[in-house]
Amino acid sequence: MSSVIEFLERMGADAQLRHASQEDIAQALEESRIDSALGAAIIARSTNDLYSLLDLRPMFHTLENPGREEEEEEEGEGEGEEQKDALATFSVTSRSLISPA
Question: pTM value?
Fold first, then answer.
């Protein structure tokens, strides 16, 4: 496992290797004597396969919800209108409480 971690560290530190073709990565894996199943997972850039083959679990998961920002913006627009309505109601109410002298 340490050779896989060392290879991944090297791959992360070396921009040419990180952006290399699959053939170049395969050659680097062969030179590093990485197991073929692990090498295939690295070439495929499959973190799930790597975790499985190394019998590890990820430390954290990330979730992406691209529609979430749009929903919040739409809700924000509605809230602004509600706040304006509440202020208008307050203004009307406060004026009606004041008696003309």
Answer: 0.52
